[in-house]
Design goal:
Elements (H helix, E strand, L loop, with lengths): L1 E5 L2 H18 L4 E4 L6 H14 L7 E4 L1 E3 L10 H8 L11 E2 L7 H13 L5 E4 L21 E4 L2 H7 L12 E4 L2 H5 L4 E5 L4 H8 L19 E6 H6 L5
Parallel strand pairs: 1-10, 2-3, 2-6, 3-5, 6-9, 9-10
Antiparallel strand pairs: 4-8, 7-8
The structure holds 2-amino-2-deoxy-6-O-phosphono-alpha-D-glucopyranose (GLP).
The site of 2-amino-2-deoxy-6-O-phosphono-alpha-D-glucopyranose (GLP) has 15 residues, from helix 5.
Amino acid sequence: MKVIICENYASECAQAADVIEKIVREKPDCTLGLATGSSPVGMYQELARRCREEGLDFSKVHSVNLDEYVGLSGDHDQSYRYFMDSNLFNHINIDKANTYVAKGVGDIEENIREFNSVLDNSVIDVQVLGVGPDGHLGFNEPGEALYDGAHKEVLDESTIDANARFFASRDDVPRYAVTMGMGNIMRAKKLLLIISGNKQDAARQLLIDDKITTACPATFMKLHQDAVVFIEKKLADEIGYKG
Ligand code: GLP
């Protein structure tokens, strides 16, 4: 795992955008695995700027997203489809027909089958990741075992707490999600994790402890051949990580 300590969030986002830009320029019809949450927002803004001002071309790019809440349709302002449209897709020249975010409403078993079929037919060139405070990737929550493929997940209470800030009340946070499995994530050619926010515990388990454990799904990134992690200096200092 390559770890890059960044002066601040802006530099973290700019360096992460460099990784995506390089892939898009070298392989214009690449497949990007994308993530939601606040961590990648600055990188998406930077990519949109590069598209607008520097001709970074997404017209042939495909994308597939990590996850979606169960119970929210794509026009709900907290759905991950809505997040992707408003934070990235509406600001770049990607063809939305080439973007896939799993459906959170309707027949969930059928949605999961569709999600798995999209994943089975895609080779993800780079998977963007944030990490939950409990170490989840996508919505793969800590537990006795992790899943290989896309599936439905019961959200941990700590995840509901962490994501309540985006909803009118904690009661409005969905209790379930559909998510890529850890196998889908690990099969991406490259992993790009942006650590931002109060992620001390997950960051410590990923960057300092030597363990790989289902109690912290992010630790599986240590097994990937081409994983890059961006972390803010402030957070690295807090956990005593020197690089
Ligand atoms: C959610 C998403 C994850 C994301 C995590 C961290 O639970 N499902 O994909 O990485 O939150 O979010 P944030 O970046 O807002 O801290």
